[in-house]
Amino acid sequence: MLWTILGLIIIGLIAGFIARAIIPGKQSMGILMTIVLGIVGSFVGGFLGFLIFGSDPNGGFLQPSGIIGSILGSIIVLGIYVFATRRRQPHTR
Question: Which of 2, 25, 68, 87 is at 20 to 30 A from 54, Cα to Cα?
């Protein structure tokens, strides 16, 4: 159980960090929010993978497709976050 939580935190940190590196602009979040971003992205990626491919009978905790899904889910979540929290630029003529 402890190893599962530790693995989730590490994968969350890696996925969140990669998502922050890919999405342009400055995201004002610390390491804890990057981990949360990665964990939420893992759930989003896993859910989308389940919707697209169905259940995986040989699914394990740590596999390359899960890590890639975590990164893609984190990119989606961060993109939505950046879009929702961006400040509107005043129109200047």
Answer: 2
Tell me: the pLDDT tens digits for 77-93?
999 988 888 776 556 66
Q: Which residue range forms the structural domain that includes residue 71?
A: 26-55+62-83
Residue 30: CA count within 13 A, CB half-sphere: 1
- Residue 66 counted as domain residue: yes
Low-confidence residues in the chain, pLDDT < 50: 57
pTM: predicted TM-score of the whole model, two decimal places: 0.77
Tell me whether residue 1 is in a domain: no
Our count of domains for the chain comes to 1
